[in-house]
Design brief:
Chain lengths: 245, 285
């Protein structure tokens, strides 16, 4: 352990000595999630890949799940931590339903709950290694927010995690506008996902698009994006460099 | 209620299936000075009578703001009431912090009731000696609840607790059907009238009562004395008797004094503006 770590563990500040109980690095990870607000609610897209380091190991990982009646959660980062978060939320929604009193948690409440959970874990040096996207509609109000693994949270009209921040957000900043129709929203998301597919090495060409409106959640069945590789530079790539492949 | 051999412990049942200590706790509520509450679709008004022990002392605070959307009026052991208000404030603020959303009144009231119930089932505790009228807003509208020392809670359109609350209850019973659609001003006016009913003839002034309001777009706040006195004057109800309700039970009229014997009141005709007899009858029955 580093000098600082050993000092901190002496003072009981860094958790148990064995360190096997803390998350140190992620193992099976999901890549970007992209989401935007449109006319009737929220649209969210994520591919179905679970990478094991540099191996694209799992190709049918559902990284978006409905939460309660009004919310949709998408996650990138450690998949097992995402599953743990789903268990926490399951319990939260269960207790909320047990009140049976006409009140229910909307996306804002769930988002803030998640912020508290992520921040508290970060303070214990045992983070849930995820970037979460939480979207939903309640009583006509659309909500879209993000929480990072260190508890940073914010709301916006369009959000993305991981590589999506660098590749998709600029597209969204240029082309997003209020009251996108469903078709335009999907086209915009597919444009972002296509760029990510070309440029993010941990992306797989199998994605789902989810929508949440006042009526509820629909997650599309998995499908693939059409890609184009017929660039002239890809024909005879070794033409300028004999011996390479 | 008389002393009996089953009333020493809260954990002792009587053969008739009663917990006397809990019932005695409810007696304590009846001894406290009156508190009333009423609600419409969009607003809830709480009012209470503030009687100081002596001219030298100030009066006890009986209405507490619990959160922007919830307030409570108490009757009974004020100290117990303060402690429970602190609990309620804590619950609200913790919920707000975790969920960035106001705690629904209905849930707070259940938590409060469960807390009260604990004290009815531990031999080393005693029931809280305070009744709480909880006024609040949530997704489903405006609500008024009454929490009992027994751990029961009920939702009300209008209610009154404390000493001489029966007079206020009778007044409210006559008019409650109209409350749902009342305006904010009418609701406050009805609250002041109900408070006045409990005063048994004493003049209603803002120095002896407190009124608080919560509504859609209006956070819970206690109206200041000046405003209350203005309203008392404006509605002209300081010493006056009850104006006819929309469906009047007694057909007394104040201005049109010609009709005599509409209600068989002895002696005084309605010439006197109906001021003398009207309010007396309901309370005396």
């Amino acid at each position: 352990m580093s000098y600082m770590d050993s000092k901190m563990s002496q003072h009981g500040l860094i958790g148990s000595e064995s360190d096997s109980q803390r998350t140190l690095y992620p193992y099976v990870t999901g890549t970007s999630v992209v989401a935007l607000k449109y006319k009737d609610g929220i649209l969210m897209a994520a591919d179905m890949g679970g990478s094991y380091g540099s191996t694209l190991r799992y190709k049918t990982v559902e990284r978006m799940k409905p939460i309660g009646k009004h919310s949709l959660l998408g996650a990138s980062g450690e998949i097992s931590d995402f599953q743990e978060i789903l268990r926490y939320l399951d319990e939260l929604i269960l207790y909320d339903n047990m009140w049976d009193d006409g009140n229910s948690f909307g996306p804002k409440e769930v988002h803030n709950y998640l912020t508290r959970v992520m921040y508290n874990r970060r303070n214990k040096f045992n983070p849930l290694w995820n970037s979460l996207v939480l979207g939903g509609v309640k009583n006509g109000q659309k909500y879209l927010g993000m929480v990072s693994m260190i508890g940073v949270n914010f709301e916006d009209n369009h959000v993305a995690t991981g590589f999506g921040n660098h590749l998709a957000r600029p597209i969204l900043r240029d082309e997003w506008h209020e009251n996108l129709s469903f078709e335009d929203g999907v086209k915009l998301l597919e444009k972002c996902m296509r760029v990510l597919l070309y440029r993010d090495r941990s992306a797989v060409n199998k994605l789902q698009i989810a929508k949440i409106t006042e009526e509820g959640v629909t997650i599309s069945p998995p499908y693939s994006l059409k890609t184009f590789w017929g660039f002239s530079a890809f024909h005879n790539p070794t033409v300028g460099a004999e011996g390479s492949w | 209620m008389f002393r009996n051999q089953y009333d020493t412990d809260v954990t002792t049942w009587s053969p008739a299936g009663r917990l006397f200590q809990v019932e005695y706790a409810m007696e304590a509520v009846k001894q406290g000075s009156a508190a009333i509450g009423l609600r419409s679709k969009t607003h809830v008004v709480l009012g209470c009578v503030n009687k100081a022990n002596s001219e030298l002392s100030s009066h006890q605070k009986k209405i507490f703001k619990v959160d922007d959307h919830i307030g409570v009026a108490i009757a009974g052991l004020t100290a117990d009431g303060r402690v429970l208000s602190r609990y309620m404030r804590n619950e609200c603020i913790n919920y707000s912090f975790t969920y960035e959303s106001p705690l629904p009144v209905g849930r707070l009231v259940v938590q409060l009731a469960d807390k009260a119930q604990v004290c009815t089932q531990r031999s080393w505790k005693r029931p809280y000696g305070v009744g709480l009228l909880v006024a609040g807003l949530d997704e489903s509208g405006a609500h008024l609840y009454y929490n009992c020392p027994s751990g029961n809670y009920f939702e009300y359109q209008a209610f009154a607790i404390g000493s001489r609350s029966q007079a206020a209850k009778t007044y409210l019973e006559r008019r409650f059907e109209n409350f749902m659609d009342s305006s904010r001003e009418d609701l406050i006016k009805d609250a002041l009238m109900a408070i006045r009913e409990t005063l048994q003839g004493e003049t209603l002034k803002s120095s002896i009562c407190t009124v608080a309001v919560v509504g859609v777009g209006e956070p819970f706040h206690i109206l200041d004395q000046g405003t209350v006195q203005q309203m008392i004057d404006a509605f002209d109800i300081a010493g006056e008797r009850e104006a006819p309700a929309p469906e009047p039970d007694e057909a007394e009229e104040q201005g049109a004094a010609e009709e005599q014997g509409v209600v068989a009141e002895p002696g005084d005709g309605a010439d006197q503006g109906g001021a003398t007899d009207e309010g007396v009858a309901p309370m005396d029955i």
